[in-house]
Structure prediction request, 464 residues.
Amino acid sequence: MFPAAFDYRAPTSLDEALSILKQHGDEAKVMAGGQSLIPLLKLRFSRPELVVDIARIPDMNAIKRDDGHVAIGALARHVDIEHSKELAAAAPMMLEAARWIADPLVRNRGTLVGSICHADPAGDWGSVLLALGGDVVARSESGERVIHAPDFFKGPFETALKPDEVVTEVRIPAAAGHSGGAYLKLERRVGDFATAAVAVQVMLEGDRIETAGIGLTAVGPHNIKATHAEQHLRGKAPTDEVIAEAARMAADAAEPKDDVRGSAAYKKDVVRVFVQRGLKSAVARAKEVGA
Amino acid sequence: MKVTMNVNGAARTGDVEPRVLLVDFLRTNLRLTGTHIGCDTSSCGVCTVLVDGEPVKSCTMLAVQATDRSITTVEGLAQGANLSAIQAGFHEEHGLQCGFCTPGMMLVGTSLLDRNPNPTEEEIRWAISGNICRCTGYMNIVKAIQHAAKARAAAAADKPGVPAAAGVAGGGE
Prediction:
């Protein structure tokens, strides 16, 4: 299968990329590893006039600890996250999630930033960002803006990005105190889209949950932040009853559809069970940290 | 547009449209037909090649993206008439039935052993999890990679300083 014909530019600096997008943004698609875009081009679901390959721009592949957060560059691949020492310390849930992305071959080329910009409702990283409270940093010739994860995902394959913008990095808050997370995913086989998946993150203060983050994958038009469930957990001791109620609320926030992977009712129940299990693991892990 | 890349140790150039996939460049322009096309939808892994030593799907990469990179295909595994350790392993352990997935499996195995010379069975299964064997011959594929790991270790012990793959003779003995 061949994509429809397109022009190709491979800028070697961010300024050059931004200038190309300023001129041609409306007709262009930005490509990092191409693991989401190339299949779309081949199926001709996407027919851009221009592909802007940003992979030749230097210094965008780093994962580095900054003040209070970890910055993940636009060219950092899933495999880099899988092995990142910075993220192992600051957001270990991301290493767990990385191992669930596609398969090892795709992880050698695909990037986190490319994945979130593609904004597939079944994408894993969106939920991780929602649970962890990540920020998306977008640049254009007019400047830089920081978009909070909940404001970034707008709909199926739709984000808050403007046509002349490039995401340069994603910022993940570094875990503080007694924090823990978990990523749970149900897939029919390696590389399949999720039937459903959940990301959960908690921070404990003494015996109580200080903050909780819950993101849901493949059960709605985009990754969903289960805000009611998060609020329910805040300030409470993580008892079985509290966790079970939060899990039920998260399932209520899911809006799955019937498809070959399962009925909507089944997927809602997977969300409930996974949030329940995930919260229990996250709390146990949070207690171990610094214990 | 003009593309230049290193394929199996030699610089190769071609003039391609940007939409040409790496697998088609290898098979059609360079006539290296050992890299197969299976699902063509990034699902099966039979088109696996190594890019700078890492296994990737050449059906999901544009030829222009490979500019100035080093590509290894199955044709690049043997050293002259000598099979590489992984090829010998697949021969010895009957690691193939129809053979269609074999080039990809051998390249994934090669890359794994380069990074992790003594993998556990679980690590081998994890490494090949993006490659589908339609004959379901996974047991012998795992054994073939284990065979290669042992052969490379033995060769390295025999000839310190010599790369393990080069020290393994043909697998037919």
The first helix of chain B runs from residue 22 to 29. DSSP finds five helices and five strands in chain B. Residues 85-167 of chain B form a domain with the DNA polymerase; domain 1 fold (CATH 1.10.150.120).
